[in-house]
Amino acid sequence: MVKKPLTIGTHHFNKKGDAEEFLKAMLHKYDFGDKVSTADAEVLHAALALHPNGAAKVGAGITHFSVRSADFGTKCFWVNRVDGSSEKFSYKACIYG
Fold first, then answer.
1. Residue pLDDT, tens place only, 19-68
2. Nearest to residue 1, comparing CAs of 16, 12, 11?
3. Residue 27 class from Cβ within 10 Å (0-12 exposed, 13-18 middle, 19+ buried)?
4. Radius of gyration of the chain from Cα atoms?
5. What are the pLDDT digits (tens) for 12-24?
6. Alpha helices in the chain (DSSP H)
7. pTM
8. Which one of 36, 37, 82, 87 has the largest count of C-beta atoms within 10 Å of its C-beta?
9. For 97, which DSSP code?
């Protein structure tokens, strides 16, 4: 398998698996209901730009990111928009499209 480097914001990864582990660790350092820190939000903004439906996920604009429950009680990143709506997104989709 060929290693495919990936850049997310200021973070450079030698392979996509490293980026996945980085974002997974970020997700799991938060508890359900937590607002993501400003520094981590910058990374998530950059990651979301790589998501195949990134523009739709951003919508009218983002106020902040949070960690909430997804399907079956798993943790997931959520984008919280300026219009009051929110939507979950997969960090894996940001990496692997």
1. 999 999 999 999 999 999 999 999 999 999 999 999 999 999 999 999 99
2. 16
3. middle
4. 13
5. 999 999 999 999 9
6. 16-28, 38-48, 54-58, 91-96
7. 0.93
8. 36
9. -
